[in-house]
User: What shape does this take?
Amino acid sequence: MKAKSIFKGAVAGFMSLSLLLSGMPVMATDANHTDMGQQVKEETAKPSAQDNSNQPTEGEAGTPDAKAVDSQQQEQADGQTDAGKDAKAEEEADSGKDVQAEEKAGSGEETDAGKDAQAEEKADSKEDAGTVEDKKDAGDKEDAADNKKDAKDKKDAKDKKDATDNKKDDVKESPENEPQALASGFKVVSGSIDIDGSLSDWKNVSARAANISNVDSWKIAYSPDGNMIYFSFSGTASTEWDYNFSGNRFALAYADGAQGADSGISVAAHNGGASVKNGWYGDVSGASAAVTNEAHGNNAGPYTVEIAVPVSFFHSPDFTVTFGGTSVKAADIEQLDGQSVAGEVQPVYTGISIDGDYSDWAAVAMADASCPNSQHPGCLSRVAAVYDGDWFYIYIKDGEGSNASGAGSHSNGKFAIVSDLGYETDIQLSTTPEVRGVNGAKVAYVGSEWEIAIPKDQLPKYEERLSFNLYL
Assistant: This one.
């Protein structure tokens, strides 16, 4: 027997499995794996600094020279007689008295005039001083008025800005400016929904029961702005061509008893598209839908339906929606807060359960795979394996062309688990689903995904390693 190796790994606790697919080895490790041996080097640099100084300068000053000039006067007197001198002296004396009297009188007049002029000048000066003082007072008052006006203008501008800011805050925080659903007291849940066929962003919205054979549950929520209402439901499609689930209808009953095209919502779905229909099966303006069907060929698989309908479609905000026998009043619909809940979270390995829920494989390394049979090379797409000491777990994802039950060179779905000692255990898969060739095996096959568990006592004798292979 020949086997094409798919996995090899050391057998110790949670193994680290070496995947060998299409000639390319890949290491699969658990979520707690840590790379070692890395070194980090750091370099440091010392800064340097320089100081500079300057000296101030002083200037000089000089003084000029001065000169003085003196002069003398000489008088000459002619000889005169004594009588002549006396007569002349008397005449000069009388004349001097008269002149002195006139000068004295004139001097008095000039003094009075000077006093009057001085008084008038003082009055004018006082008047001028008063005018200057009045002008100064007027200027001071005008400056004070201007300063007061400027201060008032600044205060008014500041008050106006504060009022604007407060108004913005009020608009932002005021309850009446929140979405109508919030203002009406709706329960708020974390989330922001995209109509893309994935329900991962619905996880915080309450699930509602549905008494419909092909529906597991349904949900409903208001958008963060209250302008849209989201609907979703999920279940199982019998085949990849089965879209009968799209015939399920949301019934709307209004408090005033009105009935019309706005009394129902459904989705018209097919492989590759979907559209939202009203109660009369007409298109709903502004609505959108997304549908996924993960059934693979004739193997049943999960489906999801998402619908978004504008609130303007509804006859009134007072309505009750019924789906699968469960009714919800508009007042009881939850509203999303707009916060994303689909953030990336590092998966942690917590064990594998064979139940058709493949989320517990997220922490196990996957590898691409293909079939060696040229007739259907795409019957395989991905594989993984992990051994916990008690069970050897295998994951397989079908390709587009076929499935793992027809893989291999003989198209018989046979695989081999080979040990490092050369021993092997052969298994064969069928879409029942069933694992043949061993006892006590577990298997789940949903849509295009397989998960298998082989008990320890059915494994071949090994020393350190086991590998998962295609049987050739």
